[in-house]
Batch of 2 targets.
Target 1
Amino acid sequence: MKLEYFKMNSDRITRIVLSLVSFIIVIVAAGMVYSLIEGSIPAIKTFGWKFIFSNNWDPTSGRENYGALPFIAGTMITSILALLISLPLSFSTSLFLGEYFKGTRVARILNMLVDLLAGIPSIVYGLWGFYVLRPLMIDLGIGNQGFGVFTSSVILAIMIIPYATSLSNEIIAMVPNDLKEAAYSLGATRLEVIQTVTIPNAHSGIIAGYILSFGRALGETMAVTMLIGNSNKVPDSLFGTGNSMASVIANQFGEADGLKLSSLIAIGLLLFLITGIVNALGKLIIKRMTR
Amino acid sequence: MKDKIVLGLVILLSLITISPIILIIGELIMKGYRQISLDFLIQNTPDTYSAMTAIANGERIPGGIANGIIGSLIMVAMAAIIAIPLGVITGVYLYENPGKRMANFTRNISDILQGVPSIVLGLISYLWVVKHITNGYSALAGSASLAIMMLPMIVRSTEETLKMIPDSLKEAALALGTPYHKVIFRVLIPTGFSGMLTGILLGISRVLGETAPLMLTALGSSMINTNITKPTSAMPLLIWEFYNDPNMIDLIWSSSLMLMIMVLLLNIISKQIAGKRR
């Protein structure tokens, strides 16, 4: 009887320990939000809404003014452009892996290479972009000495391909075979099956994959820092230079204190919120699908 | 006919997709292999002046990246020590309480955390560790940012792995009257071990190449530093320094090659473990 009682107790203790330890991750997340907001307060108090809408970033003491618009614009434009560039590539690759060559050795090798693409550190992408892609852009007469929004977007596109590909490939491979076979038995060609069975069945998963890869692009730091040109203005064209939210934090953090530091933290808070919303949207679509 | 054109297009675009990985690795090997030697692995980074004189005399740049290798190992190891127990226990908790409100909430939080850009994690670790714990840039601050980055990856891979274990195994252990903590540590975790290891190794390979959060937390150092409360270098930080110093260009490629080799090895080992399980 006594032993029985003790065992009950030890099981309960285990359960309590499990839930307490798991709560740490919640505390960390809450603490992050708290610290970001607390750090942003001086900037928010000084600039208010103008912080988001002003395009004047001027650290000169005396007429200090920090507006985040150039960086918000830079992040959005590079990420959207990267998504557009990566779209045909990752879509074709997921068709290759999940439909045309599903289960073959070629597909396995291709899949492995795409996975490796996700393993390359951001700074190595940046170096490659700087020493290989940028001279190419100069030859093509694009950007300011090859720097700029377009060059960054190309590198970003390569970086996010694996994220979109792996999810859409999984979803495409999950489309039931009976459906496809039924279509084939009616005389449909491969292309018709893809158009009328595969894509309609997998489209929300494919879209979720693109949304999640877009979320990745928003937060990329090093590769963009090395290629975008780091000029604190709203890019004047797709080939012009600019700066992104993550890059400005990385570039200007070292010498920052006071109001400037607070402004950089506020940009971090904005970036946190934007990526959070984008990721939540992607996850929501996936959850709806798997239900 | 239309079918063939589309197939051709799919193959062509797929080949374009994977060409960067081949081009990047090729570039790193071609430009980087010459500088790699034993000295490169066991010596500290040279100062700009000695690099400049070496270039002027047409010699090989002296020194290596030992401070970066050691710093990376220390910081990644500390991050792993923090993140692995937390992540595995949280993963077990999520698996053990399916459908519970608190578990769903925790899972969502973990998913959100996984999407947070690494530079923001650097800011957080700066605000927490650099400003309040070590009162200055430090290896500890670097590891804290890397640990927050690894945590959700380990949570997810632990839960996903456990989901694949047949319920009968756990039920058999419980039916024998095994205490709950023993079921977790003797049945669930050992059975799912290889799956969890895959997730952990992938997490490590991801944080090993992280530069941005370390710029705000560990800062860098030209010497090997084993004091975790002092600024410390890391391989990606060194690459960033070499990139910014025109005299060090030769070192960029060899250090990137070293970093890539380590990251890809971890990647391949983890895939190998995952492949064996299937």
Target 2
Amino acid sequence: MRLSDLPKGAPAVVDRVHDAHAVDPIAQRLRDLGFVDGEPVRVVAIGPMGGDPVLIQIGFTRFALRRAEAARVGVRTELAA
Amino acid sequence: MSASTLRIALVGNPNCGKTALFNQLTGGRQKVANYAGVTVERKEGRFTAPSGRVLQILDLPGTYSLDANSPDEQITRDVCAGNYPGEMVPDLIVCVADATNLRLHLRFVLEVKRLGRPVVLALNMMDTARQRGIVIDVPELQRRLGLPVVETIAVKRGGARALIERVDGEVPTAAPAQADDAASRADLHAQVRELLAATVTMPRATAEIDDALDRWTLHPVFGLAILAVVMFLVFQAVYSIGKPMTDAIAEVFDWLGGHAATLMPAGPLQSLVTDGLFGGLGTVLGFLPEILVLFLFIIVLEESGYLPRAAFLLDRLMLSVGLTGRSFIPLLSSFACAIPGIMGTRSITDPRDRITTILIAPLMTCSARLPVYALLIGAFIPIRYVFGVFNLQGVVLFALYLAGILGAMLVGWVMKHIRRDKSEHALLMELPSYRMPKLRDVGIGLYERGMIFLKRLTGVILGLTVLMWFLSTFPGAPEGATLPAIDYSFAGYIGRGLQYIFAPIGFNWQISLALIPAFAARETAVAALATVYLVGGEAAGGLGHALAGQISLASALSLLVWFAYAPQCMSTLAIIKRETDSWRNVAISFGYMFVMAYTASFIVYQVARMLA
């Protein structure tokens, strides 16, 4: 499952960040920001227009990600894990 | 070694309170400039430690990672690594981390440590951390990290004492440098988890107050309503506080100019002092109150953490025209004046988004256009009701505002499509904790912005103002002249020359001539038209009457559209030069706006003539 498909409020855990293309600085930055295997994440808010961007709680931090950015993050929900 | 100077580089993640700490350490003794060739701000300050040693502190741009994605991050990386040309290698790196956000910030600390340079970690915002019940075992953290750790509270007087004592002491030994590769980067997260498990107790992941506020401020309906109210208040303040001060300044300089005139004999010198010098200074300083009021709000919104929330709400809207949510506030400010708007683009992280925002900011209808609009609309547009409720004059004014916005959207869209670098623009924006802005930080921020404007612009604008004065004063009118003096001046010749260019869009030579002083400040076009149409000191109503008899409706509409798009106000062009450090961007701005204004005016003039 992708982070961009995760419903608001549902707890999940990061699986891994996928590169959208060969050299993907956005994917690398997501990893640097803490989107790594086993890290709990949650969608805390969605943007007023088309549900974009999404606000993600990870660790002690909240990041606003556009849907295209959140789509790079593979997640598994707690139940499936 | 008490007399030696110690060079310290201050680094940290964005929102770690680094700049507040820098302000605390150096107070007003800061030097703000740009790094050579780039538009990244370079802030340096110094202070004398208790031992008598001078500490020279460089406040590096905040970054999440040394794996740099943008010009400011590259500077931080290169200065820390000691290979930025023209920058001294720092003797010590002070890495600042937010004690309430260690999951994210400790990773950067570990990354900096691997550079193999002496590092001190400042755990900032310790007061907030304690309030939230966060317990940090500092001695254990220090032992595990292998570098000195001090606690700081950047926003409290004396909150940096422990840091000052530590950096004033012996420089700590550096950890061995480590290679940077994908595997070791991934390993950093594992190390952070271990560190957190062993040294930090965190009762909850976020502050309760943040959750509560965000429920309202990010709400799809209430959030947008709150944003609208905030923006409304900002604009009210600009017009009710800034505008009267601007007018007062203009009056003071008029009075000073008039007074100076009585002290010297009539002639070119008197005219230079009154019209050129005092008039020009009045124009330049007149921008200042509105700029400061706008910046007061922008800084408070930024310091409080609200600005990223506004960007979150509007990102989608702005993205559809090739911008980012962060472009919104600078563009909105540009409705008062493009200068603070362009200066406010510094909060836009992606350099491409920033340039686009800077280029379209002048298309927002600034307050200086209003006198021109008011004059022309009053003179040419009848007071008639459309659909029984809308005053036609108001409809035209609204259409002009809309023309600016639509034009900006068009330019943003075109820029998105002609840009060679089509790689994705990232948002990846942290929404920091809400904070009460501190008077000192707001004060220093305001002072810096004010000084940038005064120091960088006064010279340019004053120079150009004097040039404008020269062009419209020399050569003087011959004996027995029947026309106003300006007709015989260089400006008169230029105006007559320009009319061949402007004839297709319906401008006669008088209007062409008025466009020259309008380049210094748009509102002066009214005074210039008054001069050439021999109305002299009469009120705008008189001028409006004179205009209505002299130029056609088609020409007036064309002129209105011209003012909506034209590359005007050299102060704006000067600030584009200052903010982008590139004459190319100035040329692009001027060029595209000229073409756009000319094309739009041409269409309006020709269509209006056909319909008439």
